[in-house]
Amino acid sequence: DAGVTQSPTHLIKTRGQQVTLRCSPKSGHDTVSWYQQALGQGPQFIFQYYEEEERQRGNFPDRFSGHQFPNYSSELNVNALLLGDSALYLCASSLVGLAEGTQYFGPGTRLLVL
Amino acid sequence: KQEVTQIPAALSVPEGENLVLNCSFTDSAIYNLQWFRQDPGKGLTSLLLIQSSQREQTSGRLNASLDKSSGRSTLYIAASQPGDSATYLCAVRGNDMRFGAGTRLTVKP
Question: Which residue from B77, B79, B84 is spatially nearest to B38, judged by alpha carbons?
Fold first, then answer.
């Protein structure tokens, strides 16, 4: 049973560029959440997708957007990259939504913005 | 706004010691609390999940407790091993999921 997978593992971009990160949830899970983790800090919630809709959003600007596909996989898009967007981006999947059940995390995508 | 604090930020112990990691949160209106382990540069591995109606959960050498009224949780690690070296994060689920900054644990052989 495959766990949560993310691609790519590492990415280098320059300021102003756009980036797309991808996540496939654990088999049987229908909800995907995205987190940003800066160095030395805990992850911060970006948003959550369920039934192809954004259910909840953290305190992140509109430059951060996402999508969920019918097969429950998800993308995180970041436009107009800033140096401060450099971080580890984590995807987590769960079965019944944010408030219930264990969230399973992927290995993350490390983004470096130069 | 929920705030989650973990103390200490870093901890170094000799192998074999029992240790306690602390997590405190400001808003007791939570659904559950989860403890994670994170190895350097890696994703998060779930260790224990405590629902708001529960007081503790145990898995092997790990025991996590929850006192919702005081806004505290502890993670107890028995007979620590070098392989336990990692950053331990607690996360509180209310309206969203809030993480502490973690405790970086080093267990020396």
Answer: B84
A57, amino acid identity: R
Q: From A3, which residue of chain B is nearest by alpha-carbon distance?
A: B45
Q: Centre a 10 Å sphere on the Cβ of residue B79 and count the other Cβ atoms it contains.
A: 11
Across A70-84, B42-56, B93-107, the highest mean pLDDT is recorded for: A70-84
* Cα torsion angle, A2, A57, B48, B31, sign: negative
Of B46, B89, B97, the CB nearest to A104: B46
The encoded tokens of residue A67 equal 């999508």
Interface of A with B in 22-81 (CB under 8 A): 33, 35, 40-45, 56, 58
Three-class SS state of A84:
helix
Distance from CA of B104 to the nearest CA of A (A): 10
What token pair was written down for B61? 């050498």
pLDDT in tens, A49-108: 998 999 889 999 999 999 999 999 999 999 999 999 999 999 999 886 555 667 889 999
